[in-house]
Amino acid sequence: MDYSVKYNFKWKDLGDIALGRPNLGPLTKVAVYRLMEYTMRDVLEKRYGAVETNKIFFDSGFLAGSEFCRNVLNKSLKFNEFISDLTQKLLNFQIGVLRVESANLETFSFVLTISEDLDCSGLPFYGVPVCDYDEGFIAGILHMYSGRSFEVKEIDCWGTGERTCRFTAKLINQPEMSELTATN
What we know:
Blueprint: H1 17-20, H2 30-48, H3 50-72, H4 79-92, E1 97-104, E2 109-115, H5 132-146, E3 150-156, E4 165-171, H6 177-183
């Protein structure tokens, strides 16, 4: 196998699902998604360790969030309208139920929850948060929308015994707020 080939994901790489799945359609069971995710995590952790695997999942989520924002969301909306659009699209794609618990538009920092998410809602207690992919997904969306970098950290998770995933999102390099609200 030639490992020198570099693969660069693009939204079009998702393919023509209607053409490829004329009988089964575009949906699958959450258990199948998790089967892929958690078996991949198992193999990656055994090969690279937990820290590197978490980084891989974060980076994958960041790429997915960036592409999701670029191809699905309306980046020209002002921030509050953008969050409404994001909330609706996450519901439409059955990714999860987004709620903004707090937002400080002066520092551009937020506390967000995503309930009924694909990654961990209903998982048993592991003692650690498991939504590294989701951290990256949120960071990628916020980066693609604002052009700025965010630190996104999961602070509550089904894996830690909570009943929702809660994330903090903080702007790393803080611009003037007028730059973000005036142009988006």
